[in-house]
């Protein structure tokens, strides 16, 4: 674990509010999670990073067995409305940290962000992704219970009650 602490420092230097190395066993996956995407999010079936195009909960469960550690990062006080730049910067933070970890020899590194990808105004599902270096599936799109996972890692995450309220974005970079 000590060799991975440098990634915590890098995440904080990039603007993360909190970052820590956690056990991959803390990640909770539920079949019900994707229902929140399907019935409640207008991005369902409109983006490569969202269901049904993202990994299924069953696939995610199998994949998680191939990892033992992860970098969990959070950025607080992002508002859903009006702060597109901050949300995009968070998603780029996840992909850039993933790349750094990969180039350091952790070749299985894979990052997941929060919420729908918005690198394009509209995702053209008839063509390849225009931003494959930055677009990553949302944790919840893969069936990850983000709230319980964060709590299992000793951090907090609260339900946002209004779109104008500040929220905490959470990302996960799997490492092994």
Any idea how many domains?
A: 1
**What is the helix/strand order?**
HEHHEHEHE
- Oligomeric composition of the shown chains: single chain
In the sheet with the most strands, the strands line up as: 1-2-4-3
Share of helix, binned: 25-40%
Rounded to the nearest angstrom, the radius of gyration is: 15 Å
Give the total of beta strands: 4
Strand proportion: 15-25%
General description of the model:
It is a single chain. By secondary structure, the chain is an alpha+beta fold. It has one domain. 28% of the residues lie in helices and 17% in strands. The protein contains 5 helices and 4 strands, in the order H-E-H-H-E-H-E-H-E. The chain has a 4-stranded antiparallel beta sheet with strand order 1-2-4-3, with helices on one face. The radius of gyration is 15 Å and the shape is globular. The relative contact order is 0.25.
């Amino acid at each position: 674990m000590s060799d991975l602490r440098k990634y915590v420092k890098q995440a904080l230097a990039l603007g993360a509010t909190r970052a820590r190395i956690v056990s991959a066993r803390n990640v909770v996956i539920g079949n019900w999670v994707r229902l929140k995407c399907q019935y409640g999010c207008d991005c369902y079936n409109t983006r490569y990073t969202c269901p049904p195009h993202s990994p299924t909960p069953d696939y995610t469960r199998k994949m998680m067995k191939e990892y033992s550690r992860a970098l969990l990062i959070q950025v607080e006080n992002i508002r859903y409305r009006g702060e597109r730049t901050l949300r995009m910067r968070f998603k780029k933070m996840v992909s850039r940290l993933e790349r750094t970890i990969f180039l350091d020899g952790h070749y299985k590194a894979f990052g997941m962000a929060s919420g729908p990808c918005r690198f394009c105004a509209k995702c053209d599902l008839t063509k390849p992704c225009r931003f494959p270096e930055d677009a990553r599936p949302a944790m919840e799109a893969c069936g990850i219970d983000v709230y319980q996972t964060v709590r299992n890692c000793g951090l907090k995450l609260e339900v946002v009650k209004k779109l104008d309220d500040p929220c905490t974005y959470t990302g996960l970079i799997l490492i092994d």
